[in-house]
Specification:
The protein is of the alpha+beta class. Helices cover 23% and strands 36% of the residues. It folds into two domains: 231 residues, 3-Layer(aba) Sandwich (Rossmann fold); 112 residues, OB fold (Dihydrolipoamide Acetyltransferase, E2P) (Beta Barrel), CATH 2.40.50.140. The radius of gyration is 24 Å and the shape is globular. The structure holds adenosine-5'-triphosphate.
Length: 358
């Protein structure tokens, strides 16, 4: 990429909408502040209606915030119209010109900028090559597959060499397998060009596989910002733990606080927790245990009964009862591994270092 990638900063951004039913105002985006580093791939993730698209559209300039400032690099951009901003957006619907061919779709923005024919040709052909559409330049876009159309949409955004590339759920119209292929390609291209990318999705596996940082939103607010690993292994609260991946919540009790660490008892074991905001000794709490961190054995300290045992190919999915608590377990299947059947009496084990206290 010829140009330097830009960072994006949102300072106390709020967007108020009126609920069409109740006619009451509500904050679709509620006073969020965040800082996106130049060259990073960041996803806005969260359930439907949490405000991620509105946030993206405010960065693009299709919506304006009611309060707060948006910066692209060092420049405050609130007052700029979308095409004056150094951003380009890849839409879910592709938004291609149906009666134009691939070349002209990709060239469109450059023609408006009145770039010379030779420069346009070179830049478009470089993009055609990058998104692997070579040979299809003359094809009309309504005669392309969904995946090919999405590549054209990506090339059309990239050819503008934006400081920041924005994606609004770009893969949701593709089938599951193609989605996985395309997301890998998007990530590779982003890394190759070193461009800043902000990507909206409600698909947590998409967010985890693509991102340097995930911004997880809930009801207009930021629930947590972190690397995929931080969000997965050290969720800040129950919403985050539950939204990302499968999770077990074990009942725990905070026993005492020593040297800024909390000692938490769960299932006859005591673990140390570093984050225990708002918890006092004697309080009940929840202990997060991911299903892949649990193993089933014939005998052990924590007895259980298997109530569901499902073969999933690469792994076996179990649900077991430990007293009154249902625990989900995924065990990767080696051919020789013992598979427990429904009704089997067994026991669970886990490494304390895999526990995380909320
Ligand atoms: P999804 O994944 O379903 O697209 P989202 O997280 O992107 O969800 P937004 O599209 O940002 O959510 O919408 C946030 C909230 O604002 C929702 O409750 C939505 O109904 C509401 N909303 C969005 N646009 C408008 C509008 N123009 N007028 C009124 N309410 C709106």
């Amino acid at each position: 990429m010829a140009k330097e990638p830009k960072g994006v900063r949102l300072d106390n951004i709020t967007k108020i909408y009126q609920d069409p039913k109740t006619k009451k105002d509500f904050a679709a985006v509620d006073n969020i502040t965040l800082d996106i580093k130049p060259g990073s791939f960041v996803t806005l993730l969260g359930p439907s209606g949490c405000g991620k698209t509105t946030t993206l559209r405010m960065i693009a300039g299709f919506e304006s915030p009611d309060t707060g400032d948006i910066y692209l690099g060092e420049e405050a951009i609130n007052a700029l119209t979308p095409h004056k901003r150094d951003t380009a957006m890849v839409f879910q619907s592709y938004a291609l010109l149906p009666h134009y061919n691939v070349f002209d779709n990709i060239a469109y923005g450059l023609k408006i900028r009145k770039m010379s024919k030779e420069d346009i040709y070179k830049r478009v052909m470089d993009m055609v090559d990058l998104v692997e559409l070579t040979g299809l330049e003359e094809r009309q876009t309504n005669q392309l597959s969904g995946g090919q159309q999405q590549r054209v949409a990506l090339a059309r955004a990239l050819v503008m060499e934006p400081g920041v590339l924005l994606f609004d759920e770009p893969l949701s119209n593709l089938d599951a397998k193609l989605r996985v292929t395309m997301r890998t390609e998007i990530r590779k291209i982003q890394q190759k060009l070193g461009i800043t990318a902000i990507y909206v999705t409600h698909d947590q596996s998409e967010a985890m596989s693509l991102s340097d940082q995930i911004i997880l939103m809930n009801k207009g607010k930021i629930a947590q910002i972190g690397t995929p690993q931080e969000i997965y292994f050290s969720p800040k609260n129950e919403f985050v733990a539950d939204f990302i991946g499968e999770v077990n919540f074990l009942p725990g009790k905070l026993q005492k606080i020593e040297n800024n660490k909390a000692l938490v008892a769960t299932y006859g074991t005591t673990i140390e927790a570093e984050s225990f905001e708002n918890l006092q000794p004697g309080d009940d709490c929840k202990v997060v245990l991911r299903p892949e961190s649990v193993e089933l054995h014939d005998e052990g300290r924590i007895p259980c009964e298997v109530i569901l045992s499902t073969f999933m190919g690469s792994y076996q999915y179990y649900q077991v009862m430990v007293g009154d608590t249902m625990v989900k377990i995924t065990e990767y299947n080696a051919k020789s591994r013992k598979i427990y059947k429904v009704g089997a009496k067994a026991s669970i084990t886990f490494d304390n270092s895999n526990l995380h206290v909320l």
